[in-house]
């Protein structure tokens, strides 16, 4: 039995704990992880939740509820694409943009610095 790409992507809607990246963020692979995560999030048309460009409605009403659900999906995608010890750090954040910014701040320069150090050895 063959699983089509469409069916595989649809399964993420049903089970957001599935891994969306080729490898989980481990602290040293930010560049690869971020590119892989962005490909998936772009495919799902959810980049606006990472970039913070999706208008956040006020705290009431169906538009706000929909915004919360969609942001939570992206949060789940991101958290489940990280090693457990890393994801625990971001678990209490409330929107996808905060997770993305926190991970970028913590790991983007670290990976580059580690690579430069390895090159100097």
Could you characterize the architecture of this molecule?
The structure is a single chain. This protein has 121 residues and is mainly α. The chain has one domain. 65% of the residues lie in helices and 0% in strands. The protein contains six helices and no strands. α4 packs parallel to α6. The radius of gyration is 16 Å and the shape is elongated. The N and C termini lie far apart (49 Å). The N terminus is likely disordered. This is Retrotransposon Copia-like N-terminal domain-containing protein. Pfam families: Retrotran_gag_3. It comes from Vitis vinifera.
Sum up the structure in keywords:
single chain, 121 residues, mainly alpha, 6 helices, 0% strand, elongated, disordered N terminus, Copia-like_N, Retrotransposon Copia-like N-terminal domain-containing protein
Average pLDDT, all residues: 82
Beta-strand residue fraction:
under 5%
Which of globular, elongated, flat, extended, rod-shaped describes the shape?
elongated
Sequence of secondary-structure elements: HHHHHH
Q: Provide a count of the helices.
A: 6
What is the secondary structure topology, with strand pairs?
Elements: H1 5-14, H2 30-43, H3 47-51, H4 62-79, H5 84-90, H6 96-120
Summarize the structure.
This protein is mainly α and 121 residues long. It has helices spanning 5-14, 30-43, 47-51, 62-79, 84-90, 96-120.
């Amino acid at each position: 039995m063959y699983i089509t790409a469409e069916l595989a992507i649809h399964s993420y809607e049903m089970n957001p704990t599935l891994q969306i990246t080729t490898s989980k963020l481990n602290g040293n692979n930010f560049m690869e992880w971020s590119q892989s995560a962005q490909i998936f999030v772009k495919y799902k048309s959810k980049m606006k939740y990472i970039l913070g460009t999706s208008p956040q409605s006020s705290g009431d009403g169906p538009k706000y509820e929909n915004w919360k659900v969609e942001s939570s999906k992206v949060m789940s995608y991101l958290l489940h694409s990280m090693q457990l010890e890393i994801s625990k750090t971001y678990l209490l954040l409330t929107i996808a943009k905060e997770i993305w910014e926190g991970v970028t701040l913590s790991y983007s320069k670290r990976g580059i610095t580690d690579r430069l150090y390895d090159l100097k050895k």
